[in-house]
Amino acid sequence: MASKLPTEQHFQNRQLGLFQQFLCNTDDERQRFSNSIELWDAVPRYSISRQAMVKMRDERGNLPLLQLEFEYRGTKFSVSIQATQIEEKDENNKPKKTKDGKPVTTAYYPSANEELVEEVLRKLAVDQEHGFLINEKSTARSGVVFSLYQLREELKQRGHTRSFDEIKLSLDILSGSNIKIIANSPTSIDLPFGKSNYLAALTGVTRKDMTIDPGKKWMAQFHPFVTASIDKLSYRQFNYHQLMSHTTQLARWLHKQLILKYTFASRLKPFEIRYSTIKRDSSMLYNYTRPRKAQEACDFSINELITNGVLATLERRIEAGERGKILDIVYTLVPSNEFVAEVKAANKRQTS
Fold this sequence. Notes:
Layout: H1 14-20, H2 27-30, E1 33-37, H3 50-56, E2 66-72, E3 75-82, E4 84-87, E5 105-108, H4 112-125, E6 131-136, E7 139-147, H5 148-157, H6 164-176, E8 178-183, E9 193-197, E10 199-203, H7 207-212, E11 217-222, H8 224-232, E12 235-239, H9 240-244, H10 249-261, E13 271-274, H11 275-282, H12 291-307, E14 311-320, E15 326-335, H13 337-351
Helix pairs in contact: 4-6, 10-12
């Protein structure tokens, strides 16, 4: 990597130290926490499934520029995602070739697998020996030093077992895919604009070295929005263990929305969200050809938040039009006592 490598002081500076500290009572509790990132975690950056990509690719394996829109705290944003081309390998791990000797490649957008890998990388970064922050003059970069073994073991412990090859593929997709985020609202002059790869930089080891020693160190540099959040203290602690226990990607997205937006959580002040808002801002429900299937998937993911202890109860109210056609669904979410306590701790941490 051409940019400056982190030194010992970049693993120990004050801003990073604050990022790595959590308001909790024991070391066991601390292991359950990580940080959500303001705005970045609201971006629908993992919304296209691997199955949907198969249908979207052309005969050469290419994917189009993906254009999405979402709203966050009253501001409208546009997102452009450029897929990365990954060389296909045969059973002997040698590059596949076309008849004229050119590499065979397949395009990938970052998807659910990559979401989990990024989440784990950020969790590893809160361990004091792994995360770094460089903020000197015009240079601002953050990231994590890790091994594929550490990454695989953390995924396995959270119920998301992946092979070394699957993890390596996800890292290649994250470091090769580009995302552009633009605020479109009339009042957005001072709001962020960002264009970068999901992982701004990645260094690793060869497959041969990895086979000999899976503990060899890699280094990943986070997206600039993550760095800015660490620098400006615009992150919130949350129950990472609970988030990673969800089986559906939409449940994780909904959980993150509550973490970012439901900062006033109380059993007496439920959180209201519409199906149309979930569909627009997650971009995960457009893949369903039948509206009822998309609504059922949304219902399942919200109910999973009850099963996993984020919510206590929910109320589902249908807004219907002519002949009973469903126009929208209003979900009123009542938080669990555990979630309320965690929100209060996150609020106290930010003001301390």
